[in-house]
C-alpha cells in the first residue's frame, strides 16, 4: 500500500535527472538547463543553463553555463517538452536589445508590489515581508 503514495520529497526528482528543466526562482529569474544533480534539500545543479527574459511577444537568452541553485529559492521546477519548445509563438532577439525593457518591467512590478504591501500593512494590518513574524 505504501508504494501507491507519491513522492512528496526531493526523492521525486529522480526521474528528472538528465532532462531539460525550467526553474523559476524567487527573484523572478527563469533558467533553462539540464538537471544533473540534486540533494535532500532540493539544491539543484543545472548544466548548459541559459537565463531567459521576456517582454510582450519576444524573448532573449543569456548563457550562464553550470548553475547551482539553493533549494529554498526554487518557486517552480518543470520539465521542458522538447517537441513543443520549438512551437512557442515568440520571437527571439538579442539579450542587450531586450534587457532595458525587461528591467523596466521588473521595476514597475517591484513598485506595484511595494505599494500593495504598504496598503496591506497600513489598511489591513498585515506585516510587511521580512518583518515581524516572517522569520523561521
TrEMBL record:
<keyword id="KW-0687">Ribonucleoprotein</keyword>
<dbReference type="GO" id="GO:1990904">
    <property type="term" value="C:ribonucleoprotein complex"/>
</dbReference>
<protein>
    <recommendedName>
        <fullName>U6 snRNA-associated Sm-like protein LSm1</fullName>
    </recommendedName>
</protein>
<dbReference type="InterPro" id="IPR034104">
    <property type="entry name" value="Lsm1"/>
</dbReference>
<dbReference type="GO" id="GO:0006397">
    <property type="term" value="P:mRNA processing"/>
</dbReference>
<dbReference type="InterPro" id="IPR047575">
    <property type="entry name" value="Sm"/>
</dbReference>
<dbReference type="InterPro" id="IPR010920">
    <property type="entry name" value="LSM_dom_sf"/>
</dbReference>
<dbReference type="GO" id="GO:0000290">
    <property type="term" value="P:deadenylation-dependent decapping of nuclear-transcribed mRNA"/>
</dbReference>
<keyword id="KW-0694">RNA-binding</keyword>
<feature type="domain" description="Sm">
    <location>
        <begin position="8"/>
        <end position="83"/>
    </location>
</feature>
<dbReference type="InterPro" id="IPR044642">
    <property type="entry name" value="PTHR15588"/>
</dbReference>
<dbReference type="InterPro" id="IPR001163">
    <property type="entry name" value="Sm_dom_euk/arc"/>
</dbReference>
<keyword id="KW-0963">Cytoplasm</keyword>
<comment type="subunit">
    <text>Component of the heptameric LSM1-LSM7 complex that forms a seven-membered ring structure with a donut shape.</text>
</comment>
<dbReference type="Pfam" id="PF01423">
    <property type="entry name" value="LSM"/>
</dbReference>
<comment type="function">
    <text>Component of the cytoplasmic LSM1-LSM7 complex which is involved in mRNA degradation.</text>
</comment>
<comment type="similarity">
    <text>Belongs to the snRNP Sm proteins family.</text>
</comment>
<dbReference type="GO" id="GO:0003729">
    <property type="term" value="F:mRNA binding"/>
</dbReference>
<keyword id="KW-0507">mRNA processing</keyword>
<dbReference type="GO" id="GO:0000932">
    <property type="term" value="C:P-body"/>
</dbReference>
<dbReference type="GO" id="GO:1990726">
    <property type="term" value="C:Lsm1-7-Pat1 complex"/>
</dbReference>
Amino acid at each position: 500500500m505504501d508504494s501507491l503514495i507519491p513522492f512528496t520529497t526531493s526523492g521525486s526528482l529522480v526521474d528528472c535527472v538528465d532532462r531539460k528543466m525550467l526553474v523559476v526562482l524567487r527573484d523572478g529569474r527563469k533558467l533553462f538547463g539540464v538537471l544533473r544533480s540534486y540533494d535532500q534539500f532540493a539544491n539543484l545543479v543545472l548544466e548548459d543553463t541559459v537565463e531567459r527574459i521576456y517582454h510582450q511577444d519576444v524573448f532573449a537568452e543569456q548563457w550562464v553555463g553550470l548553475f547551482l541553485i539553493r533549494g529554498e529559492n526554487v518557486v517552480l521546477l518543470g520539465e521542458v517538452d522538447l517537441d513543443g519548445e520549438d512551437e512557442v509563438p515568440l520571437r527571439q532577439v538579442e539579450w542587450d536589445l531586450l534587457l532595458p525593457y525587461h528591467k523596466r518591467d521588473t521595476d514597475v512590478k517591484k513598485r506595484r508590489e511595494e505599494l500593495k504591501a504598504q496598503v496591506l500593512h497600513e489598511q489591513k494590518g498585515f506585516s510587511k515581508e521580512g518583518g515581524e513574524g516572517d522569520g523561521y
